[in-house]
User: Fold this.
Amino acid sequence: RKWKSAAFSQYPRYLNGLLVMGYSVRNERFRYTEWVQFNRKPSFKPKWNILYGAELYDHTTDPGENYNRANEPEYHDHRVTLM
Amino acid sequence: KSRKNILFLVADDMRPDLGVYRSGDPVIHTPNLDALAGKSLLLKKAYVQQAYCSPSRTSLLTGRRPDTTHVYDLIHYFRKSGGNFTTIPQYFKDRGYNSIGMGKIFHPGQKASDFDDPISWSRPYFHPDENEAYRGRSHSWRAVSKDEYNDKPLPDIQLANKAIEVLRQVGPAAKRGEQPFFLAVGFYKPHLPFVFPEEFLSLYPPENINLPKNGYIPAHMPPIAWSKYWELLIYKDISELQVSGQPNTSLPRDVVRSLRRAYYSSISYIDNEVGRVLQELKMLGLEDNTIVSFLGDHGWQLGEHGEWCKHTNFEDALHAPMMIHVPGITDRGIITERLTEFVDLFPTLVESAGFTPLSLCSEVNSTQTILCREGTSLMPLMKNPT
Assistant:
């Protein structure tokens, strides 16, 4: 059977009284993270449309994660795929 | 047919700077873990679900992601916040294993785990004596002389001694096929403060310790990605430096080098204690019938990006060591670079011990399902690692 193509992680932060969750997906080439508003109780769900930041690191050229490419036009299609 | 035993080894805050990963700079001296990796499935790209002790441990021990356990901090207890989920040690206890825990497996304390989740274990839990001299906040690291630790044994030495004692107790019954054991040993280091026997310092001469290659924050990093590494700033020797923890304001270079040297020494110290336990397993003739897993509960940032500790979504915080030895299957050593997650461990141990594979949890809501998996068994990678 086909093996999984991504690993998922998350980390919460408090910002001005709001809870923000950083959801991160790692595939063979990229790590992509979106920091979004998060409702704790009762739903424990993110609000994907309220974004506090995004990070896209290209591990083929930048294994040290030194350049966030999230807003670079040439990475737009990759970002859309990872979203 | 008698079941295989399970030896479940965990290190606290250990990133994959092991000799076998070749990721450290310098290469880290870990002969015992390297030897274990040489007869295991070594998962070179294993990622935790959250880079923080209790959320990560709760996730891997229940096989569920933090959005199911609802444990995102060191306070909430999954049985109260997420659901009454079966844990790995509880699963084996419920199937006749002698389930024994010691050290840091669940995050300790009443709020976080109701004192080590008693339902998971067959007998009272063991904690070593955490001598105050070794846990104070005056120094972020300390090399302890032999005289001192002979007088006041370090907690992880006590832990390895206890694990050896328990193996000698439960080993004969397991060997006769009467009752298999699940023995979980949770080492406390290399967690801060980096306290270790001084002889390990000599493995890492100061001139061999390099600064991280990426000492600054990523270009265009959103501020919310940053953590002020409060876990390090609480130590007096660090707070005296008047550092703020803000991006691009990292520590003086000599301090960075000293911390990296102490962290590497702590890894080698834990490797030594793991080696003593594995040696006893071999001496007792249990090696061929015991599954051995080893993992670090998450990664750690040693000044990369000018960042420290965990508490981020950077690669260094999320990437952690994991290896699984299954006698008769992984004996020649299998390395995989396929992406894996720590929620994969529970279904792997269940399958490798010969039990019926766990069912996949419902994608909608699994809080009422006591036993299911959100990860995937790693057994297929033992047959085809590519």
